[in-house]
Design brief:
Blueprint: E1 15-17, E2 28-33, H1 43-56, E3 65-69, H2 73-85, E4 88-94, H3 99-107, E5 111-115, H4 127-137, E6 141-142, H5 151-167, E7 174-178, H6 183-195, E8 200-206, H7 211-217, E9 247-251, H8 253-267, H9 273-285, E10 294-299, H10 313-318, H11 330-339, H12 355-365, E11 369-374, E12 377-383, H13 384-392, E13 412-413, H14 419-425, E14 432-438, E15 441-446, H15 447-460
Parallel strand pairs: 2-10, 3-4, 3-6, 4-5, 7-8, 7-10, 8-9, 13-14
Antiparallel strand pairs: 1-2, 11-12, 14-15
Helix pairs in contact: 1-2, 1-5, 5-6, 8-9
């Protein structure tokens, strides 16, 4: 496929099904991967749309300057347009944004002015106030103002919403996205609601932002500082329309960052912290889904801009996000095991399998025992020592079936089972437990998993 410029490559990003990150969910969960836009984020869409409108209406003339307050991604979208069409670009950013974002904007030829985060929007030092001043003082400057520009939600109504609807073939039941300017969730939400008013539009808001409280309580609570970038606000953008939103879920910085890391390690989706916010909000909804439901989670930007933060374990530990990332519960240990890149698929045998087949599975996965399942339920376990005794007795392992050798099934615990409850079941004779994830899904925790979890937690705590 050939394009006349990089700008024509924006949009038509893929839907990718989530498997390990949605384990135990009865419905389907898909990720709309807008981080695969050429500039690395959803904001490529609005950068082009806002400049197109300004050119049509004569607000931006050849040789002009684009000035915008940005968390980095809108700046990248506008910087792409500026590079292709010959404009200058100056961006203001809050000082909490990652160094990678500043460097990327400068690499595209833009000027970046870094402003303090912990000031009110109307403070003359804020990045909102500084960009407004630049727009007034620089000749032939255009300030797109993504927080109040109708072209922002409109481009999502015209492109992002239809892409999602068509790729889901109209079977979508839930859409989850973070809220910053609100352009994505507003534009997509409007389009989807027009196609099917029953679709649930769910916003994800970081703790510290004012949007969650306003949606649920109808009142403004003073915002507090938070670390996740690009979503949440301490004021109300006019590009955000609460009337198309059915629910808003609050997510902590810690859960945002841990879920972003899980997406990378469990699904190969390398995204930013705001994607983790959306995924953490989606995780709150997953238990409510039925087999008829299909949820789309919006992934707005790439993880490449957060290597010094979200994907830097030292930074995560310094900010106490990894200190207790290994909760003392069965579910927490399973998540931590997945985060460490360890296999998560349950390897099992059937009662009618030849013992030789079970032995091959053990050897290929370096297991000393293997659970036995029948009709989706645990019915027993087979151990390496028992197979060895059969071989020493001269038995043909291809003719003996697992049912003849297996012992009792491992105990079953809930995902919320504490370490004390798990270890009470694990003995020399019973080296593992099953975790019942619901919907006929099980995982196994062995003595090795518990020891590894403990040693990893001790290492993280220093």
């Amino acid at each position: 496929m050939r394009y006349n410029s990089i700008l024509e490559a924006i949009g038509h990003t893929p839907l990718i099904r989530l498997h390990r990150a949605a384990r135990g969910c009865l419905g389907e969960v898909w990720a709309k991967c807008d981080y695969l836009n050429p500039g690395g984020s959803v904001k490529d869409r609005i950068g082009t749309a806002m400049v197109d409108e300004a050119e049509r209406k004569g607000w931006l003339k050849p040789g002009g300057t684009l000035v915008e307050g940005t968390s980095g991604n809108t700046g990248m979208g506008l910087a792409l347009v500026a590079a292709v069409r010959g404009y200058k670009a100056i961006f203001t950013m809050a000082d909490k944004q990652s160094r990678e974002k500043v460097d990327a904007l400068k690499a595209l030829g833009a000027e970046v002015i870094v402003c303090p985060t912990a000031v009110a929007p109307e403070d003359p030092r804020s990045y909102h106030s500084v960009v407004e001043k630049l727009g007034r003082e620089i000749p032939n400057a255009y300030h797109p103002d993504q927080y109040h520009n109708p072209a922002n939600p409109e481009i999502h109504y015209q492109t992002t919403g239809p892409e999602i609807w068509e790729d889901c073939e109209g079977h979508l039941t839930h859409f989850v996205a973070g809220m910053g300017t609100g352009g994505t969730i507003t534009g997509v939400g409007r389009y989807l609601k027009e196609r099917n008013p029953d679709i649930k539009i769910i916003g994800a808001d970081p703790a510290g932002s004012i949007l969650y409280d306003f949606f649920h309580r109808g009142e403004v609570i003073k915002g507090e500082p938070y670390k996740v970038e690009g979503i949440g606000e301490d004021f109300f953008p006019t590009t955000l329309d609460f009337s198309v939103i059915d629910d808003v879920r609050r997510v902590t910085d810690k859960d945002s960052f841990l879920w972003a890391r899980r997406l990378a390690r469990m699904e190969g989706i390398f995204a930013g912290g705001s994607a983790g916010t959306a995924m953490a909000a989606a995780a709150q909804v997953l238990p409510e889904l039925t087999a008829q439901d299909l949820m789309v989670v919006f992934i707005p930007d790439t993880g490449l801009r957060y290597l010094s933060k979200v994907y830097n374990s030292e930074w995560m530990r310094d900010n106490r996000y990894l200190e207790s990332s290994l909760p003392w519960t069965a579910q927490g240990i399973l998540h931590a095991r997945a985060d460490l890149g360890q296999p998560g698929e349950l390897v099992k045998a059937a009662p009618a399998d030849p013992v030789a087949t079970a032995l091959e599975l053990m050897q290929s996965h370096d297991f000393s025992q293997l659970p036995v399942f029948d009709a989706g339920q645990p019915v027993g376990a087979i151990f390496e020592d028992d197979i060895l005794n059969l071989a020493l007795d001269g038995k043909d392992l291809k003719k003996v079936v697992v049912r003849e050798v297996m012992g009792a099934a491992f105990p079953v615990v809930a995902p919320s089972a504490t370490m004390d409850q798990i270890t009470a079941h694990i003995t020399r004779e019973c080296p593992a437990v099953f975790v019942d994830l619901g919907g006929g899904q099980y995982q196994i925790l062995t003595k090795y998993d518990l020891l590894h979890a403990i040693s990893h937690l001790v290492e993280m705590r220093g």
